[in-house]
Design brief:
408 residues, mainly alpha, globular
Protein backbone atom coordinates (compact mmCIF):
# COMPACT_ATOMS: atom_id res chain seq x y z
CA UNK A 1 0.00 0.00 0.00
CA UNK A 2 2.86 2.22 0.76
CA UNK A 3 4.23 1.68 -2.73
CA UNK A 4 0.89 2.63 -4.34
CA UNK A 5 0.71 5.74 -2.25
CA UNK A 6 4.18 6.78 -3.16
CA UNK A 7 3.62 6.14 -6.86
CA UNK A 8 0.36 8.22 -7.00
CA UNK A 9 1.62 11.29 -5.23
CA UNK A 10 0.30 14.55 -6.76
CA UNK A 11 3.07 16.11 -8.86
CA UNK A 12 3.77 19.63 -7.67
CA UNK A 13 6.14 21.96 -9.47
CA UNK A 14 7.59 24.48 -7.14
CA UNK A 15 8.43 26.92 -9.94
CA UNK A 16 5.93 27.61 -12.76
CA UNK A 17 2.94 25.94 -11.03
CA UNK A 18 3.63 27.67 -7.78
CA UNK A 19 0.88 30.19 -8.29
CA UNK A 20 -1.64 27.35 -8.77
CA UNK A 21 -1.09 25.93 -5.30
CA UNK A 22 -4.14 26.07 -3.02
CA UNK A 23 -3.94 27.63 0.41
CA UNK A 24 -4.69 24.21 1.99
CA UNK A 25 -4.30 20.56 0.79
CA UNK A 26 -7.30 18.48 -0.24
CA UNK A 27 -7.40 14.67 -0.18
CA UNK A 28 -8.91 12.48 -2.89
CA UNK A 29 -11.63 11.17 -0.60
CA UNK A 30 -12.81 14.73 0.16
CA UNK A 31 -12.89 15.58 -3.53
CA UNK A 32 -15.13 12.55 -4.23
CA UNK A 33 -17.47 13.07 -1.34
CA UNK A 34 -20.33 14.09 -3.66
CA UNK A 35 -20.27 10.86 -5.68
CA UNK A 36 -23.12 8.38 -5.17
CA UNK A 37 -20.77 5.36 -5.25
CA UNK A 38 -19.77 4.53 -1.69
CA UNK A 39 -16.17 5.28 -1.16
CA UNK A 40 -15.80 2.14 0.94
CA UNK A 41 -15.99 0.00 -2.24
CA UNK A 42 -13.19 1.93 -3.89
CA UNK A 43 -9.56 1.31 -3.20
CA UNK A 44 -8.41 3.66 -0.51
CA UNK A 45 -6.05 5.97 -2.26
CA UNK A 46 -4.60 8.92 -0.43
CA UNK A 47 -2.48 11.75 -1.66
CA UNK A 48 0.49 12.73 0.31
CA UNK A 49 0.21 16.23 1.72
CA UNK A 50 1.28 19.09 -0.52
CA UNK A 51 4.63 20.52 0.33
CA UNK A 52 4.34 23.15 3.01
CA UNK A 53 6.36 25.62 1.04
CA UNK A 54 3.76 25.55 -1.76
CA UNK A 55 0.67 26.68 0.12
CA UNK A 56 2.58 28.94 2.47
CA UNK A 57 4.90 30.72 0.14
CA UNK A 58 2.31 31.30 -2.60
CA UNK A 59 0.03 33.64 -0.60
CA UNK A 60 3.06 35.57 0.50
CA UNK A 61 4.13 36.00 -3.13
CA UNK A 62 0.65 37.13 -4.17
CA UNK A 63 0.49 39.62 -1.33
CA UNK A 64 3.81 41.18 -2.17
CA UNK A 65 2.90 41.26 -5.87
CA UNK A 66 -0.41 43.03 -5.07
CA UNK A 67 1.36 45.62 -2.98
CA UNK A 68 3.81 46.22 -5.80
CA UNK A 69 0.92 46.80 -8.25
CA UNK A 70 -0.79 49.23 -5.88
CA UNK A 71 2.44 51.13 -5.49
CA UNK A 72 2.98 51.43 -9.26
CA UNK A 73 -0.60 52.28 -10.30
CA UNK A 74 -0.70 55.86 -11.67
CA UNK A 75 -2.71 58.45 -9.68
CA UNK A 76 -5.13 58.90 -12.62
CA UNK A 77 -6.04 55.20 -12.53
CA UNK A 78 -6.47 55.34 -8.76
CA UNK A 79 -8.75 58.40 -9.12
CA UNK A 80 -10.81 56.64 -11.78
CA UNK A 81 -11.16 53.55 -9.60
CA UNK A 82 -12.16 55.67 -6.63
CA UNK A 83 -14.66 57.56 -8.76
CA UNK A 84 -16.22 54.25 -9.82
CA UNK A 85 -16.81 53.52 -6.14
CA UNK A 86 -18.44 56.94 -5.70
CA UNK A 87 -15.71 58.28 -3.42
CA UNK A 88 -14.20 60.97 -5.69
CA UNK A 89 -16.03 63.55 -7.82
CA UNK A 90 -15.15 63.92 -11.52
CA UNK A 91 -12.43 66.42 -12.36
CA UNK A 92 -13.76 69.97 -12.91
CA UNK A 93 -12.95 72.06 -15.95
CA UNK A 94 -10.83 75.20 -15.74
CA UNK A 95 -13.92 77.40 -15.98
CA UNK A 96 -15.61 75.57 -13.10
CA UNK A 97 -12.54 75.83 -10.89
CA UNK A 98 -11.73 79.47 -11.69
CA UNK A 99 -14.99 81.19 -12.75
CA UNK A 100 -13.74 84.64 -11.71
CA UNK A 101 -10.72 84.38 -14.00
CA UNK A 102 -12.86 83.27 -16.94
CA UNK A 103 -15.39 86.08 -16.42
CA UNK A 104 -12.53 88.56 -16.04
CA UNK A 105 -11.06 87.35 -19.32
CA UNK A 106 -14.42 87.91 -21.04
CA UNK A 107 -14.62 91.46 -19.68
CA UNK A 108 -11.04 92.20 -20.72
CA UNK A 109 -11.69 90.87 -24.25
CA UNK A 110 -14.90 92.88 -24.51
CA UNK A 111 -13.18 96.13 -23.46
CA UNK A 112 -10.13 95.47 -25.61
CA UNK A 113 -12.15 94.81 -28.77
CA UNK A 114 -14.40 97.81 -28.07
CA UNK A 115 -11.47 100.18 -27.61
CA UNK A 116 -9.72 98.87 -30.74
CA UNK A 117 -12.92 99.30 -32.75
CA UNK A 118 -13.46 102.90 -31.63
CA UNK A 119 -9.85 103.89 -32.30
CA UNK A 120 -9.66 102.21 -35.71
CA UNK A 121 -13.10 103.51 -36.65
CA UNK A 122 -12.08 107.10 -35.93
CA UNK A 123 -8.81 106.69 -37.84
CA UNK A 124 -10.77 105.52 -40.89
CA UNK A 125 -13.02 108.59 -40.66
CA UNK A 126 -9.98 110.88 -40.53
CA UNK A 127 -9.17 110.01 -44.16
CA UNK A 128 -12.49 108.52 -45.35
CA UNK A 129 -15.40 110.57 -43.88
CA UNK A 130 -18.30 108.52 -45.23
CA UNK A 131 -20.17 107.10 -42.21
CA UNK A 132 -23.09 105.63 -44.17
CA UNK A 133 -20.81 103.53 -46.33
CA UNK A 134 -18.61 102.54 -43.37
CA UNK A 135 -21.73 101.47 -41.46
CA UNK A 136 -22.59 99.17 -44.37
CA UNK A 137 -19.07 97.70 -44.22
CA UNK A 138 -19.43 97.07 -40.46
CA UNK A 139 -22.59 95.06 -40.96
CA UNK A 140 -21.42 93.41 -44.19
CA UNK A 141 -18.29 91.95 -42.59
CA UNK A 142 -20.39 90.73 -39.66
CA UNK A 143 -22.94 89.11 -41.97
CA UNK A 144 -20.22 87.31 -43.95
CA UNK A 145 -18.74 86.11 -40.65
CA UNK A 146 -22.14 84.75 -39.55
CA UNK A 147 -22.71 83.01 -42.88
CA UNK A 148 -19.32 81.30 -42.66
CA UNK A 149 -20.09 80.18 -39.11
CA UNK A 150 -23.44 78.80 -40.23
CA UNK A 151 -21.77 76.98 -43.12
CA UNK A 152 -19.43 75.10 -40.77
CA UNK A 153 -22.14 74.58 -38.15
CA UNK A 154 -20.70 76.85 -35.43
CA UNK A 155 -23.36 77.63 -34.44
CA UNK A 156 -26.01 75.68 -36.25
CA UNK A 157 -28.39 78.02 -38.07
CA UNK A 158 -31.80 78.27 -36.46
CA UNK A 159 -34.72 78.28 -38.91
CA UNK A 160 -36.74 81.47 -39.30
CA UNK A 161 -40.36 81.82 -40.38
CA UNK A 162 -42.51 84.72 -41.55
CA UNK A 163 -43.84 85.47 -38.06
CA UNK A 164 -40.37 85.71 -36.54
CA UNK A 165 -39.18 87.80 -39.48
CA UNK A 166 -41.95 90.31 -38.81
CA UNK A 167 -40.97 90.47 -35.14
CA UNK A 168 -37.27 91.02 -35.85
CA UNK A 169 -37.72 93.62 -38.59
CA UNK A 170 -38.52 96.58 -36.26
CA UNK A 171 -35.60 95.56 -34.03
CA UNK A 172 -33.28 95.46 -37.03
CA UNK A 173 -34.51 98.84 -38.29
CA UNK A 174 -33.80 100.49 -34.93
CA UNK A 175 -30.44 98.73 -34.80
CA UNK A 176 -29.55 100.03 -38.27
CA UNK A 177 -30.68 103.60 -37.46
CA UNK A 178 -28.83 103.69 -34.15
CA UNK A 179 -25.68 102.25 -35.69
CA UNK A 180 -25.62 104.67 -38.61
CA UNK A 181 -26.31 107.70 -36.42
CA UNK A 182 -23.54 106.68 -34.02
CA UNK A 183 -21.11 106.53 -36.93
CA UNK A 184 -22.26 109.91 -38.21
CA UNK A 185 -21.48 111.32 -34.76
CA UNK A 186 -18.12 109.55 -34.62
CA UNK A 187 -17.18 111.04 -37.98
CA UNK A 188 -18.26 114.56 -36.97
CA UNK A 189 -16.90 114.98 -33.42
CA UNK A 190 -14.41 113.44 -31.02
CA UNK A 191 -15.03 109.86 -29.89
CA UNK A 192 -15.03 110.96 -26.25
CA UNK A 193 -17.77 113.50 -26.89
CA UNK A 194 -19.98 111.01 -28.74
CA UNK A 195 -19.72 108.55 -25.86
CA UNK A 196 -20.46 111.32 -23.37
CA UNK A 197 -23.68 112.16 -25.22
CA UNK A 198 -24.53 108.47 -25.52
CA UNK A 199 -24.35 108.30 -21.73
CA UNK A 200 -27.86 109.79 -21.89
CA UNK A 201 -29.23 106.49 -23.21
CA UNK A 202 -30.48 105.39 -19.73
CA UNK A 203 -32.55 108.58 -19.56
CA UNK A 204 -34.30 107.72 -22.83
CA UNK A 205 -34.77 104.13 -21.68
CA UNK A 206 -36.48 105.29 -18.47
CA UNK A 207 -38.68 107.75 -20.35
CA UNK A 208 -39.74 105.14 -22.91
CA UNK A 209 -40.42 102.56 -20.20
CA UNK A 210 -42.80 104.88 -18.36
CA UNK A 211 -44.47 106.78 -21.20
CA UNK A 212 -44.48 104.11 -23.92
CA UNK A 213 -44.62 100.80 -22.06
CA UNK A 214 -46.55 102.20 -19.10
CA UNK A 215 -44.08 100.92 -16.49
CA UNK A 216 -43.84 102.97 -13.30
CA UNK A 217 -40.32 104.29 -12.76
CA UNK A 218 -39.41 104.99 -9.10
CA UNK A 219 -38.46 108.51 -8.08
CA UNK A 220 -35.00 107.35 -6.98
CA UNK A 221 -34.28 106.20 -10.53
CA UNK A 222 -35.35 109.52 -11.99
CA UNK A 223 -33.21 111.43 -9.49
CA UNK A 224 -30.17 109.33 -10.38
CA UNK A 225 -30.53 110.52 -13.99
CA UNK A 226 -30.19 114.19 -13.03
CA UNK A 227 -26.35 114.04 -12.83
CA UNK A 228 -26.29 112.40 -16.26
CA UNK A 229 -28.25 115.24 -17.86
CA UNK A 230 -26.25 117.90 -16.03
CA UNK A 231 -22.90 116.31 -16.87
CA UNK A 232 -23.67 115.91 -20.57
CA UNK A 233 -24.91 119.52 -20.73
CA UNK A 234 -21.69 120.81 -19.12
CA UNK A 235 -19.52 118.75 -21.47
CA UNK A 236 -21.46 119.85 -24.55
CA UNK A 237 -21.31 123.56 -23.81
CA UNK A 238 -17.51 123.69 -23.75
CA UNK A 239 -16.56 120.76 -26.01
CA UNK A 240 -13.95 122.03 -28.46
CA UNK A 241 -15.06 119.61 -31.21
CA UNK A 242 -18.76 120.34 -30.73
CA UNK A 243 -21.01 120.62 -33.77
CA UNK A 244 -24.72 120.09 -34.13
CA UNK A 245 -24.37 117.18 -36.56
CA UNK A 246 -22.38 115.15 -34.07
CA UNK A 247 -24.64 116.06 -31.14
CA UNK A 248 -27.99 115.47 -32.88
CA UNK A 249 -26.92 112.23 -34.51
CA UNK A 250 -25.76 110.89 -31.12
CA UNK A 251 -29.13 111.83 -29.62
CA UNK A 252 -30.97 110.08 -32.47
CA UNK A 253 -28.80 107.03 -31.81
CA UNK A 254 -29.93 107.07 -28.16
CA UNK A 255 -33.58 107.15 -29.21
CA UNK A 256 -33.11 104.40 -31.80
CA UNK A 257 -31.38 102.07 -29.36
CA UNK A 258 -34.10 102.76 -26.80
CA UNK A 259 -36.79 101.62 -29.19
CA UNK A 260 -34.61 98.67 -30.16
CA UNK A 261 -34.79 97.56 -26.52
CA UNK A 262 -38.58 97.96 -26.52
CA UNK A 263 -39.08 95.93 -29.70
CA UNK A 264 -36.56 93.34 -28.53
CA UNK A 265 -38.77 92.55 -25.54
CA UNK A 266 -41.69 91.98 -27.88
CA UNK A 267 -39.58 89.75 -30.12
CA UNK A 268 -38.37 87.40 -27.39
CA UNK A 269 -38.20 83.90 -28.83
CA UNK A 270 -36.65 80.55 -28.02
CA UNK A 271 -33.85 81.22 -30.51
CA UNK A 272 -30.38 81.68 -29.05
CA UNK A 273 -28.87 85.17 -28.96
CA UNK A 274 -26.15 84.38 -31.52
CA UNK A 275 -28.67 83.43 -34.20
CA UNK A 276 -30.95 86.35 -33.31
CA UNK A 277 -28.06 88.81 -33.67
CA UNK A 278 -27.10 87.24 -37.01
CA UNK A 279 -30.60 87.66 -38.42
CA UNK A 280 -30.81 91.22 -37.08
CA UNK A 281 -27.48 92.05 -38.75
CA UNK A 282 -28.69 90.70 -42.10
CA UNK A 283 -31.93 92.69 -41.99
CA UNK A 284 -30.15 95.83 -40.72
CA UNK A 285 -27.68 95.58 -43.60
CA UNK A 286 -30.59 95.71 -46.06
CA UNK A 287 -31.83 98.88 -44.36
CA UNK A 288 -28.38 100.54 -44.44
CA UNK A 289 -27.56 99.98 -48.12
CA UNK A 290 -30.16 102.37 -49.72
CA UNK A 291 -29.18 105.57 -47.79
CA UNK A 292 -25.48 104.82 -48.33
CA UNK A 293 -26.06 104.54 -52.10
CA UNK A 294 -28.30 107.61 -52.29
CA UNK A 295 -26.46 109.97 -49.94
CA UNK A 296 -22.83 108.98 -50.50
CA UNK A 297 -22.78 106.88 -53.67
CA UNK A 298 -22.08 109.70 -56.17
CA UNK A 299 -19.35 111.21 -53.98
CA UNK A 300 -17.68 107.85 -53.46
CA UNK A 301 -17.55 107.12 -57.18
CA UNK A 302 -16.41 110.63 -58.07
CA UNK A 303 -13.60 111.15 -55.58
CA UNK A 304 -14.20 109.34 -52.26
CA UNK A 305 -12.44 106.06 -53.03
CA UNK A 306 -9.65 107.74 -55.00
CA UNK A 307 -8.88 110.20 -52.19
CA UNK A 308 -8.67 107.43 -49.58
CA UNK A 309 -6.43 105.26 -51.77
CA UNK A 310 -4.14 108.19 -52.55
CA UNK A 311 -3.72 108.90 -48.83
CA UNK A 312 -3.10 105.42 -47.41
CA UNK A 313 -2.89 103.06 -50.39
CA UNK A 314 -5.30 100.41 -51.63
CA UNK A 315 -4.07 97.58 -49.39
CA UNK A 316 -4.29 99.57 -46.15
CA UNK A 317 -7.65 101.04 -47.14
CA UNK A 318 -9.21 97.61 -47.74
CA UNK A 319 -7.48 96.18 -44.66
CA UNK A 320 -8.80 98.98 -42.43
CA UNK A 321 -12.35 98.50 -43.71
CA UNK A 322 -12.19 94.77 -43.12
CA UNK A 323 -10.75 94.95 -39.61
CA UNK A 324 -13.03 97.75 -38.42
CA UNK A 325 -16.00 95.60 -39.49
CA UNK A 326 -14.55 92.50 -37.85
CA UNK A 327 -13.84 94.28 -34.56
CA UNK A 328 -17.34 95.76 -34.60
CA UNK A 329 -18.93 92.31 -34.90
CA UNK A 330 -16.58 90.57 -32.47
CA UNK A 331 -16.96 93.12 -29.69
CA UNK A 332 -20.74 92.92 -29.94
CA UNK A 333 -20.64 89.13 -29.88
CA UNK A 334 -18.22 89.00 -26.92
CA UNK A 335 -20.34 91.59 -25.12
CA UNK A 336 -23.38 89.33 -25.46
CA UNK A 337 -21.43 86.31 -24.21
CA UNK A 338 -20.04 88.33 -21.29
CA UNK A 339 -23.37 89.72 -20.16
CA UNK A 340 -24.89 86.22 -20.20
CA UNK A 341 -22.33 85.09 -17.59
CA UNK A 342 -22.86 87.76 -14.95
CA UNK A 343 -25.56 89.13 -12.68
CA UNK A 344 -27.42 92.37 -13.51
CA UNK A 345 -25.32 94.35 -11.03
CA UNK A 346 -22.06 93.22 -12.61
CA UNK A 347 -23.57 93.92 -16.03
CA UNK A 348 -24.35 97.50 -15.00
CA UNK A 349 -20.89 98.16 -13.59
CA UNK A 350 -19.30 96.58 -16.67
CA UNK A 351 -21.17 98.88 -19.05
CA UNK A 352 -20.12 101.98 -17.12
CA UNK A 353 -16.47 100.91 -16.95
CA UNK A 354 -16.52 100.16 -20.68
CA UNK A 355 -17.56 103.73 -21.46
CA UNK A 356 -14.85 105.08 -19.14
CA UNK A 357 -12.24 102.92 -20.89
CA UNK A 358 -13.32 104.08 -24.35
CA UNK A 359 -13.38 107.78 -23.42
CA UNK A 360 -10.02 107.58 -21.65
CA UNK A 361 -8.23 105.68 -24.41
CA UNK A 362 -9.66 107.88 -27.17
CA UNK A 363 -8.36 111.01 -25.43
CA UNK A 364 -4.90 109.47 -25.00
CA UNK A 365 -4.61 108.01 -28.52
CA UNK A 366 -5.95 110.99 -30.48
CA UNK A 367 -4.66 113.66 -28.11
CA UNK A 368 -8.01 115.42 -28.01
CA UNK A 369 -7.83 118.60 -25.99
CA UNK A 370 -10.74 119.05 -23.62
CA UNK A 371 -11.58 121.95 -21.38
CA UNK A 372 -11.78 121.63 -17.61
CA UNK A 373 -15.55 122.02 -17.70
CA UNK A 374 -15.83 119.27 -20.32
CA UNK A 375 -13.76 116.94 -18.15
CA UNK A 376 -15.84 117.67 -15.06
CA UNK A 377 -19.08 117.26 -16.99
CA UNK A 378 -17.93 113.91 -18.39
CA UNK A 379 -17.06 112.63 -14.90
CA UNK A 380 -20.44 113.78 -13.52
CA UNK A 381 -22.29 112.11 -16.40
CA UNK A 382 -20.44 108.82 -15.96
CA UNK A 383 -21.02 108.90 -12.20
CA UNK A 384 -24.73 109.46 -12.82
CA UNK A 385 -24.84 106.49 -15.20
CA UNK A 386 -23.12 104.37 -12.55
CA UNK A 387 -25.67 105.33 -9.88
CA UNK A 388 -28.58 104.72 -12.24
CA UNK A 389 -27.19 101.34 -13.28
CA UNK A 390 -26.69 100.21 -9.69
CA UNK A 391 -30.23 101.21 -8.68
CA UNK A 392 -31.72 99.57 -11.78
CA UNK A 393 -29.69 96.39 -11.20
CA UNK A 394 -30.83 96.15 -7.58
CA UNK A 395 -34.44 96.59 -8.68
CA UNK A 396 -34.06 93.79 -11.25
CA UNK A 397 -32.47 91.51 -8.66
CA UNK A 398 -35.25 92.17 -6.16
CA UNK A 399 -37.85 91.48 -8.86
CA UNK A 400 -36.13 88.22 -9.75
CA UNK A 401 -36.01 87.06 -6.12
CA UNK A 402 -39.66 87.89 -5.57
CA UNK A 403 -40.56 85.88 -8.68
CA UNK A 404 -38.61 82.90 -7.37
CA UNK A 405 -40.12 83.17 -3.87
CA UNK A 406 -43.67 84.48 -4.34
CA UNK A 407 -44.71 83.43 -0.84
CA UNK A 408 -41.97 85.25 1.01
Amino acid sequence: MASITSSLQYPVHTGRLRSLCLPSPFGFSRANAHLKTPTSKLPRLEFSPLPERCFVSAPVGISSWTQEIRRRVPPVVKAAAADADGQVEPAKSFGERFPVLVTGFFFFTWYFLNVIFNILNKKVYNYFPYPYFVSVIHLLVGVVYCLVCWAIGLPKRAPIDKELLLLLTPVAFCHALGHVMSNVSFAAVAVSFTHTVKALEPFFNAAASQFVLGQQIPLSLWLSLAPVVIGVSMASLTELSFNWTGFISAMISNIAFTYRSIYSKKAMTGMDSTNVYAYISIIALLFCIPPAVVLEGPKLIQYGFNDAISKVGLVKFLSDLFWVGMFYHLYNQIATNTLERVAPLTHAVGNVLKRVFVIGFSIVVFGNKISTQTGIGTVIAIAGVAIYSLIKANMEEAKRKSALNPGS
